[in-house]
Amino acid sequence: MAELKLVKIGGNVIENREALADFLEDFAALNGPKVLVHGGGKEATQMAKKLGVNVQLIEGRRVTDAKNLELITMLYAGKLNKNIVAQLQALGCNSLGLTGADGNSILAEKRPSKPIDFGFVGDLTEVNQSFFKMLLDSGISPVCCALSHDGKGQLLNTNADTIAATLASALSDHFDVSLNYCFEKNGVLLDLEDDRSVIQTLDETNYLKLKSEGVLHTGMLPKLENCFTALKAGVKQVRIGSPKIITESVNYTQIIN
Questions:
Q1: What are the φ and ψ backbone dihedral angles of 118, each rounded to 5 degrees?
Q2: Mean pLDDT, rounded, for 163-183
Q3: Least CB-packed of 97, 146, 160, 217 within 10 Å?
């Protein structure tokens, strides 16, 4: 099977114009089929404050009421997604910006309101594999934002890391998938203040040990859960690190079974 590079970009890279432009140049230069998934939660929080929209986080997860859903739809599917696509087109990378509703690409169901009501948040149920394969086989690179839909007319806010892992898992039926989580750090760190403290390889046993000891930053835990889920679903390689991991031999964390 052909190799597919699936890259999720997030963190401060999305908000940094120069860092994002540098990453997109590297992404556009990748040979073969590729998919980009992007977040935007930090910018959404900043925009909400400017517009006077209340933001509520529970255990680091955004509660998405109707006003917040309207805001993130404008930001994720509009400003961020289309600016990324425009920059990739300028770099010669033919790309197509997607929410989960476009091409019925990513379906979800609204998360139950108990024990916690997160509002219009979606838990993924299905990926339209044939749609993504058609795009990739045609030389088009999908650019997916953090919105899914329920098939009944409702958009749903969905964690971008989860979208990346779910897409990687689904597409592993057709490709040898390399899943890359890129953000402003060099990898999973033993010391959040020391970028040199990168854990070179991390398996589930060591992950659970470090988690129980409180060593790992809490914001990293959901990402790592997605990594192990993807590996169990057939993804060939999972890496976490700076955006340069997609083109250069730099420090990063390799997640292994």
A1: -90, 5
A2: 97
A3: 217
